[in-house]
Structure to design on (429 residues):
RNA sequence: GUGCCAGUAGCUCAAUUGGCAGAGCAUCGCACUGUGGAUGCGAGGGUUGUGGGUUCGAGACCCAUCUGGCACCCCA
């Protein structure tokens, strides 16, 4: 094979079979978002770097964003996340928008990461946010959206789970241990790594961060205390709200959940594959009550989450949740071509059927029928129409079912009554 | 950005201590030029990711590089 120019590292080519999955995922996300009354929106893919600078977290902006100068020298960022854009869009029209505001989006994002399974440099993300409410029941609504999505695609609570925590709860606990607020982000990082390190290593790391033995032990106890949520009025009300809709099976308190983005203020959550092999988190989100003020708007409470397409697609494939019929066939019928002399008859019939709303493929080269039928079979077109001199002579055409092999002769005036019922209906992809 | 592993036909993989690059599936042709899936026969297909080096000789060894995977880092 000749040299093909390679794709950009970490990008994906969506061949039709992959595109069908992406489109199906989009439709599923749209269905769920709309079921809860959320409206679709979209922002620019290019943003000024300042939008993210102070709000998203050092690492995300400095290490993981695609940033380059445009022709005037201004630094342009390929958006690594949507929430700051959303905050800006809301702040710009804060006086005219109607709150509470429910918006969702599904679009591309870029992060300069090392590509591996479940992680690419260009990916799609479902973002959904509820702005203008600061009740725990608003947080519960977003969690309910997630559970509904999992149920719709067929993921059980034995396969995926949402782990939830409250940063305020953790901050109170750290205060009680005598850890001052300015140490908090370092200690949050410490908590984040606890699971990944050997205990002794982690202990040493904690000492380096300036924690004394009783503080370290206090944190260890904290992270093992699965009943801690009962001291959080916020989490209690969230769990209560979710009891109304049999979502509780999917949701579990986990004091280890902290999350990397700096703008979360209270509830934080993350969904994971617990029954399978995919280690990365499926989605993450939480409450961010200060972000609107930070981008120049009036203060507004908000809660939301983001789900990337890469991990969820892997998991859906792993559990066999992707319907087989989403990439069924490119058309309902192939109108074959017998010879150059009969070509116009075939094209005319094909056009007639298309005007009736049928998805039709023609074979604009009179190769032998053998080949044409084999083609139809291989691309899974369910019917073939054969229109040779014999049929033309009696003003009819033959319809062959590729699944049964049966063939019938039809007259043109039987198209509406006999042919269309077979060919219209089930969606082609 | 760090460490480790891998890359051979369209796909999945083989090739003994460094000694003639192969198989299955797929493709194409024929049996079967007015009927697909099955079967049989035959054919085409490769700068072994790329670029250097060692060697009489490299798919294999060495260096660099690209791409992917695993563990970090981070996160959707």
């Amino acid at each position: 094979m000749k040299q093909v120019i390679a794709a950009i590292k970490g990008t994906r080519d969506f061949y039709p079979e992959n595109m069908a999955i992406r489109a199906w995922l989009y439709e599923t996300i749209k269905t769920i978002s709309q079921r809860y009354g959320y409206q679709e929106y979209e922002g620019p893919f290019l943003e000024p770097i300042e939008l993210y600078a102070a709000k998203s977290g050092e690492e995300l902006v400095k290490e993981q964003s695609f940033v380059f100068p445009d022709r005037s020298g201004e630094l342009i960022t390929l958006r690594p996340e949507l929430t700051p854009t959303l905050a800006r869009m809301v702040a710009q029209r804060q006086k005219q928008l109607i709150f509470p505001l429910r918006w969702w989006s599904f679009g591309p994002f870029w992060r300069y990461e090392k590509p591996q399974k479940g992680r690419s440099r260009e990916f799609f993300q479902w973002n959904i946010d509820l702005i203008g409410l600061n009740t725990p029941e608003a947080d519960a609504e977003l969690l309910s959206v997630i559970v509904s999505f999992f149920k719709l695609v067929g993921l059980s609570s034995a396969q995926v789970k949402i782990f939830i925590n409250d940063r305020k709860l953790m901050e109170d606990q750290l205060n009680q241990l005598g850890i001052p607020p300015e140490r908090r982000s370092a200690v949050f990082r410490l908590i984040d790594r606890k699971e990944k390190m050997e205990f002794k290593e982690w202990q040493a790391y904690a000492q380096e961060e300036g924690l004394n033995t009783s503080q370290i032990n206090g944190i260890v106890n904290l992270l093992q205390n699965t009943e801690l949520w009962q001291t959080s009025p916020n989490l209690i009300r969230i769990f209560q709200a979710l009891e109304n809709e049999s979502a509780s099976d999917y949701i579990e308190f986990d004091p280890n959940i902290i999350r990397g983005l700096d703008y979360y203020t209270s509830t934080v959550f993350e969904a994971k594959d617990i029954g399978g092999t995919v280690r990365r988190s499926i989605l993450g989100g939480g409450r961010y009550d200060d972000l609107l003020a930070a981008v120049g708007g009036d203060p507004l409470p908000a809660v939301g989450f983001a789900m990337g397409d890469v991990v969820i697609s892997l998991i859906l494939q792993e559990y066999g949740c992707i319907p087989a019929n989403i990439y069924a066939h490119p058309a309902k019928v192939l109108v074959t071509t017998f010879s150059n002399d009969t070509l116009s008859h075939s094209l005319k019939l094909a056009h007639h059927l298309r005007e009736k709303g049928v998805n039709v493929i023609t074979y604009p080269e009179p190769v032998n029928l053998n080949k044409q039928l084999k083609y139809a079979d291989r691309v899974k077109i369910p019917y073939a129409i054969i229109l040779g001199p014999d049929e033309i002579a009696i003003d009819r055409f033959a319809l062959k079912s590729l699944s049964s092999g049966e063939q019938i002769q039809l007259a043109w005036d039987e198209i509406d009554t006999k042919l269309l019922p077979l060919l219209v209906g089930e969606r082609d992809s």
